[in-house]
Amino acid sequence: MKAVIIGAGSGFGSRLSVDILSREPLQASTIALCDIDAKKLETVQAYVQKVIDGNKLPAAVTASTDRKEVLRDADFVVIAVSIGGPAYYGKPYEFEMGIPKKYGITQTVGDTVGAGGVFRALRTGPELLAMAEDISRLAPNAMILNYTNPMAILTWVLNARAGVPAVGLCHSVQGTSKFLADCIGVPYPEVGYWVAGINHMAWVLKYTHKGKDAYPLIFKAAKKPEIFARQPIRFEIMQEFGYFVTESSRHMSEYVPWYQHEQDVMQSFVKTTKGVKERRQAWFEDMGVKASQAESIALHRSHEYASGIMEAVVTNAPMRFNGNVLNHGLISNLPAGCCVEVPCLTDREGVHPCQVGDLPPPCAAMCRANVAVQELTVKAILERDRNAAYHAVLLDPSVGAVLTLKQARRMFEEMWRREGSLLDAYKTRLRRSA
After folding, report:
1. What torsion do the CA atoms of 287, 36, 90, 266 make, to the nearest 10 degrees?
2. Which listed residue (171, 300, 303, 352) is catalytic?
């Protein structure tokens, strides 16, 4: 098996490589690393080689700053990139956070929704389309595993143009299911769950302990101040609408309009985001790896789905995971063709999404508000349509909660100017594909 990791200089490069090497059926694989930062790439390659040598594995690791050199005949291509600058600090991220803030909109993460999320998608989408073209040509039998945010928008874009299947992967479902088990005080192996919606706004539709409904235990736990304080927005949303959402309170505050009017709450989350540059170990723990294990050469496996999907395809032993795929009859009260996050099975024949049916109406309504923004952003990327990009920003729930039409237009124009050459792809509008 050959797995290519584009954006290997990120934490995903080292972590997913160890995950692959931890699985016996994959231990003779070739791992091909790619990143435009040669120094980071060299560091990650040296670490992965150390893991291979230290565990006496038959695997091989190669690296290149040119993806065309490593893509040929790949079986899997992981995309985990940040186009234009660092993911959560520096430029252009500071523009995408700071300009909306000047207009009164608080974004707590800004990588998936809001004006910041739209502009991140706009600068990232054209490059992912170029990657998709290279993958389709050089690795026509590959599967794309996308970790790049905005997850729903970019996975939608990849599926629209790539000649190979693409699925988006996140770890919010794994993290949430473990968090809830901890809240109700039961061992994680004893719980079950059924989760569906859109990325970062998927809903825990069922949660069981030893086969019995555990939602009464979750509502009971939420009444304890020390439990409620761990995820106040998620518990508040659950109390109002009846279902727990998969993304953190910090992130969920951006997906709905109400918290723009609770600046004391929002600012506490902003402070957390500003510290993300110094929180690499915490990021690994979010992936299910203890801080003490993050740089170990031992084969400690994270709870990321990628290596499990690879093993399932290679061995034909089915695996269940929550993936981001296009909505072809999966969630009946979300728009057809949008990107949804649903339970999936995978085996040698590929990824098989599960049909969910209707989401609870209020949950579907909150998802649809964000899908509308995603759809317009996808249109903007695929057709190089600047006006669609403006409409996407205009219809974002947080923007609508704060700004007038004229204010939103001024904010959009300022953000477009500050992105500069990162938006050069939009200088020529393309025709709609047939």
Report:
1. -30
2. 171
